[in-house]
Amino acid sequence: MPRIFPLTVAACSALAITAAHAQTLRLSPDQTLEAPGLSVIVEQNHFSPIFFDEKNAGIQIVLHGERIATDGEIRLNPTPEQWDPVPMFGERTLGDAGQIIVRSSFPKEKLNYRVKVTPEDGGFRIAVDLDAPLSPELVGKAGFNLDFLPTAYFGKTYLMGDRPGLFPRNPNGPMATDGSGDPKPMASGAKSVTLSPEDPATRVTITANAPLALYDARNRAQNGWFVVRSMIAAGAKEDAVVWHVKPNVIPGWTRAPVVSFNQAGYTPQRGKVALIELDPNFKAPTQATLVKLTDSGEKPVFSAPVQQRGKFLRYNYAAFDFSSVREPGIYAISYAGHTTNPFPIAADAYERIWQPSLDTYLPVQMDHTTVREQYRVWQRAPHMDDAIQAPPNITHFDGYRMGPNLDSPFKPGEHIPGLAVGGFQDAGDYDIQTPQNAQVVRDLVWTRELFGLDWDETSVDDKAREVEIRKPDGAPDALQQVRHGVLQLLAQYKVFGHSIVGIVDPKLRQYAHLGDAVSQTDGKLYDASLGPNEVKGDHSGVPDDRWAFTTAYPANDLMMAGSLAAASRALKDFDPAMSAEALTVAKALWTKREGDTANGSDGRDDSGNMSRFLDLAKVAATVELVITTKGDPVYTARLKALTPAIEANFDRVSGAAVRAIPYMDATYKTRIRTLVAGVKPRVDKDLAGNPFGVPISMGSWAGSGEVASFGSNMFLMHQAFPDLIGPEYTLHALDYMLGRHPANNLSLVSTVGTRSKLNGYGHNRADYGFIPGGIAPGVLVIKPDFPEMMTEWPFLWFESEYTVSTTTAYILAAKAAIAATEERR
């Protein structure tokens, strides 16, 4: 969470009593409403067509550098959950005096309307005009909501009219007693509400033309926010809802500088550049100082002018270069009257930055396995009832799709034996995504082959389905994790003869499970002939078994083939039988999808969601078989034929393409060299738009995974052609992942570095907890220009959700960065 300069509550309150709530909002060139300390973003971020409510849509308020309110829109429920109905946005126009007008609708309910947001003295006015009065079915359901960030208000008070109340840290009702399970209002009945009257940094007052209600949506779902709501009256049309919203702005407020750097520190010989993120209204000092922390306190050791790096999104940036400081020690940066947290300069600064990811995060995500860490049991062996056949022609609420063909010998609802083995639960939602599992295996193999990864800190017994963290068993953890992933991949092939999309919970309530994975299902096979609570042997009448989505996609088959080919190399001495089986299956899948047909897809149309991955999968699978077979002409010839696919996707397949060079002819190497030569000018041009030296995601999911892949791919090109590509890109990627990024300076890898993200969207997010070694997606750009990574609220999946494939991509990139620093010793 961005900090502001220290100012006591009493002093702030005294200032605020005599000040207007906010300076006049003005329409910006980006069509936001802006005043110093306040931004109003009006429906420039849309509800998701898949996940619906992500808490990043509608009218949003950024106050004193923090997005405190979101989802200002008509909703059909006072406390909507993620998959509850959301409106569709339509035309956006500008009116007079900075007014923003957006047409929206609920097509199914035939509810069409306009939301008008207009600057006014001290804040802004929201008005909702309906095209027609509500239908009888929507009366008592439709209302206007605005959600407020819980962590901004925990422990603070509110006034509903003149009636006081407290925002609770833990949801505690009241709940409806009609059986609906819906929360009742915390307070209601007045036409005005003030949130946190005692805190000028988060105070907001809303007055309305109808009674207001205040809800704690966490009573319905842990990711709910505090909701202010007005109902739409029967018969209302013009000005069906009118709110006057007055966020308080502390006079003269400017956002404090964010000094961002690598939280794990620096090796002595490498470049060391901190970036300073600056509010354009802040009077920024022109010099920064590096201080060394000694037994007698801080000792200034180096000062230099900061170098201007221009504007990116809404902030200005400056750089503090202290590369000349090489003496080992503990340091901090002093700037604008504030000294940062410490960081080391040491030859071994990065020696173990990958360790928590390998020996804690990955074991915690292992499916079908009990995972213990000393006194703590992360999970008992879950999902032992996997899996049943999903039905045809459905789209799952998590995006899984099943077409008319099941590509399976099993009937819908039939148990599929053999799938309750191995695999990794993909993220915070417990499913097995086959492509991501394949990526985990390949990344671990690459890391071990390229950089060494013989660490042993974990006991893994796949036969006993038991794992114990921090209990060495004499076997490299990476190989044990590879074997665990391969168990699931091979199981799919044995059952279906191809890969499947994945295995996921069938019901939304079950999917939203938080806690020990073993309690997500009963571990017994579903039998429809049994009663709901009846148990008979290893069967039960509880329909909780996960669904297998069994559609056969060529891209998935090729991803699996490449992963198994790589695994066969890694497991050759560790598990010879599995190694041989993996290679046999890899060749069979490759031949089916790539080797025997001119179009590389055995006549199947790989359209829709997977089509964009097909060329990438072709290249990846063929490269792995080239490496595994040490240049078998069947695979080298096909890789040469795939040159157009390599050229079209080089940014994404460059690492794989250069890995094949030792097994290819001179023509191939010359072509790859030409492609690599074109990378540097193109990348430098693309990265000139931001000061961080890495690609920054502008999409709906923050981009740490892309940064990790960028770092490892650039290093592989550097290894192959050091005269064309330097190691600095890989080090910039490491710096970004470990703290040098927009919004704040936390390491995105939990527990790595002095300060790191210590709540994440993992299995324990309901406890505001973290999983050591998980890497968060990181900084999302709230359109049009607000970079955000919430530090205290763990429920925004697009900023905080750990995933297994992103974590292994980080392990690979971290090891590449270590190798880059070793070149400079």
Structure write-up:
This protein is α+β, with helices and mostly antiparallel strands and 825 residues long. 26% of the residues lie in helices and 23% in strands. The chain is built from 17 helices and 42 strands. The strands form nine sheets. It has a nine-stranded antiparallel sheet. A nine-stranded antiparallel sheet has the order 6-7-8-9-18-15-14-11-12, with no helix packed on it. Strands 21, 22, 25, 26 and 27 form a five-stranded antiparallel sheet that branches. β31 (394-395) and β32 (401-402) form a beta hairpin. α3 (355-364) runs antiparallel to α17 (804-822). The radius of gyration is 28 Å and the shape is globular. The protein starts with 8 loop residues before the first helix and ends with a helix.
Low-confidence stretches: 1-21, 597-604
Supply the number of helical segments: 17
Which secondary-structure class do the elements indicate? alpha+beta
| Total beta strands | 42
- Terminus-to-terminus distance: 37 Å
> pLDDT average, as an integer?
94
**Overall morphology:** globular
Provide the β-strand percentage band.
15-25%
Strand sequence of the main sheet, in spatial order? 1-2-3-4-5-10-17-16-13
Largest sheet: 9 strands, antiparallel
Task: Classify the helix fraction into a percent range.
Answer: 25-40%
Radius of gyration, taken over Cα atoms and rounded to an integer in Å = 28 Å
